[in-house]
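The following block was generated as part of the benchmark described in Methods. Ligand: MU-OXO-diiron.
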Amino acid sequence: MTSTEIKNDIFWVGAIDWNVRDFHGYSIPSGTSYNAYLVKDQKTVLFDTVKKEFLDTLLLHIGQVVEPEKIDYIVVNHVEMDHSGALPMLIDIVKPEKVICSAMGKRALLAHYHRDDWPYEVVATGDSIDIGSRTIKFIETRMLHWPDSMMSYIPQERLLISQDGFGQHWATSERFDDEVDLGELMYQAKKYFANILMLYSNTVQKLLGEVRSSGVEIDMIAPDHGLIWRSHVGDIVQSYDDWSLHKCKAKALVVYDTMWHSTEMMAMAFAEGLEAEGVSVKVCDLSVSHRADVMTELLDAKAVVFGSSTINNSVLPRVADMLAYMKGLRPAGKIGAAFGSYGWGGEGVKYVAAMLEEMKFEMIDEPLKVVYVPTADDLARCTELGRKIGQAVKESQ
Ligand code: FEO
């Protein structure tokens, strides 16, 4: 890769991480990028850095535009270490005039790197700095997705540098949204939202409302991961609006893990009933479906039908993992049902139902339990409940 001019005298100077596959539990089979941006004006400004292992790549790409020592300001939009890991070494090399961050950003930088000698300049929403022919306006986006998070807007360029917001974990040699397959791009953006931002949906709504009411015009969004939006800005903003409003399709997810295939037989019978009602169904066997992919499917599914066998008076381990991950991401407005096979206690199904209720799912009927192996009548009950859930999904549309 080389540095890429994304607007006149504004450059992508980040790094592509082709080989990373996991982001604290979120599977990223297509790798990712750590995007950093350099603006050349009377002042030279760098926005965010990269993971510390990619410092040399960052320096290489900066060096293709300007000598690193010429950087005047470093803006830290987000302190998480995939964007600030290289910062301490870079500051030693660059010796910038200012390290610009939010108040929470300064606190987080001190807690990460313990350097109180850096030339911090703390900014808040509404603050701006002139760098010559351009202005940088700062918008704090606390809890999108860390307390320190902020975005930088350059009105003369209609450019929003959006840190994690609008990002995707997708390593590509292309830099722009119109250079890749749009379906794949939107899937990656959806997966990112589902696994990183879903629990901050209210904050996303607030931000979108503020952007609308301020009349800010944006014709490019440059996130800290993945592709830069220039031809589909409206599409991704509309998708963020839909996702953060928890808008759902006539779609149901059947999620399960099974010991001896009995719970699996029930899962398939539920799917039959849902399909019979004309609802789109995704069946996710947790022994082959990653939690991050399940969350991606769950984002726009109205119903989640969740099953587990009972083991050791509880659920199967992968079910516990999935439910804990799901609960943390706070899905909202879902219809739910619990099911499973058991031998004697049946606590696994109760556990699933309790977790779905804690997540405020609207539960359709009592948990459906079957002793050992389902009979044809048991499977018919599953299909019938699937139909009932399918009807509820359709009524919600
Ligand atoms: Fe890409 Fe929250 O760091």
